[in-house]
User: Fold this.
Amino acid sequence: MRKLFIAGNWKMNKTATEAAQLVSALVKKVEGLSDKVTMAVCPPFTSLDRIAPLLKGTGVDLGAQNLSDKASGAYTGETSAAMLLDLGVKYVIIGHSERRQYYAETDELVSKKAKFALGAGLLPIVCIGETLKEREANKTSHVITTQLKGSLAGLNAEEMHKVTIAYEPVWAIGTGKTASPDQAQEVHALIRKLLTDAFGKAVADKVIVQYGGSVKADNAKELMAKPDIDGALVGGASLDAEGFSALIKNSIS
Ligand code: PEP
Assistant:
């Protein structure tokens, strides 16, 4: 039995002051739920330090939205795994479709970052998903297979235990369009099969596969009811405490 994992990806939203207000409100609303659901928030880098102390002992973990594939040095604007760890970060989102689309991140870079994060002690949330054009051309399975294999290249079974996969159809992110529970389950089952083929059943049965794409309080429950959907990566609906806490509660109800 896998424990649901719900993470909020705040993207480039909230100043540090606003982030602290949001977290303070959120932790009160989700108090006592961490036995039933793993929870995390992934604010911008600029808020990590402010938020970390507010999360201590609350059952809500801290995540980052990206990391460098280098350890340190002359890489202007980059943030290393060691810097994140030092701030109390536990999870790191890698290969979000916005990074793939706007910052040209490839499967190869994603796998390098995942390997690097794991080596440093961070837990990667590796994102994959097809575009609308790819879905309409019946290429979803091909795209998911290629992205999953490429993004996890070089990881061994022991490392894979520590990785979360987020299936996020690009056409459903921030658009208000959600994959139907059946559409999502179909891809999640494919991901589980690919993980079984690559890492064995024991590992594949344990890996958390989140769904992401316009998940809200009112559609979370039916998505989470599917056998291979183990949680959610939530963008827009994680930006207010009321909505995000309702989403989390509905997911486990
Ligand atoms: C995301 O960006 O990870 C996401 C799923 O966004 P939204 O929930 O806003 O669609």
Notes: Residues 9, 168, 173-174, 212-215, 233-237 surround phosphoenolpyruvate (CB under 6 Å). Residues 10 and 43 are 5 Å apart (CA to CA). The longest strand covers residues 4-9. The mean pLDDT is 97.
